[in-house]
Design goal:
alpha+beta
């Protein structure tokens, strides 16, 4: 039997989240997808810019749902236009869900940080964070520019 080619690790990241939020510890959770969505994500066709996670009530407790994430199809894996931004259920342990519900009640937002497609399953890293104020964002830009200038001077 021939050996499988190792799959290359494709990361779809939400770079804006680190700028807009003060993030806490991240959790790695699964995501319920269709076959065409899985194939598209493995090829890197999708983005989580502007996406967020919400908690919906269910008889067993809360469930995590990913909203506003876009997975676009291609010629091989066709995804209809209305299905590209549908709500997708996140798969996490009950203890993890409870900690996220507690963070949500404290006024934090649950933000997706990146989608990992390297292994057998597609995982998504999420974190609870508090939104930054405008002056905090300006301070972040200022620190980044100072670090860039210092590195430039050392060269």
């Amino acid at each position: 039997m021939a050996k499988k080619k190792p799959t290359t690790l494709k990361r779809i990241s939400n770079r804006r989240a680190k700028f807009d939020y003060e993030l806490g510890d991240g959790l790695l959770v699964g995501i319920a997808l269709t076959g065409a969505e899985t194939k598209s994500l493995r090829r890197g066709h999708g983005h989580i810019r502007g996406a967020y996670v919400t908690v919906k009530d269910s008889p067993k407790g809360g469930e995590l749902w990913l909203l506003n994430a876009t997975i676009t199809g291609d010629n091989v894996a066709k995804i209809p236009e209305e299905q590209q931004t549908r709500s997708r259920k996140l798969l996490a342990k009950r203890r993890e869900i409870d900690t996220l519900i507690a963070a949500k009640k404290q006024g934090q937002t649950i933000v997706p940080l990146e989608v990992l497609t390297g292994g057998r399953y597609i995982k998504i890293r999420i974190a609870a964070g508090r939104g930054k104020r405008q002056y905090d964002k300006r301070e972040t830009i200022k620190k980044r520019n100072q670090a860039r200038e210092a590195a430039r001077m050392l060269r």
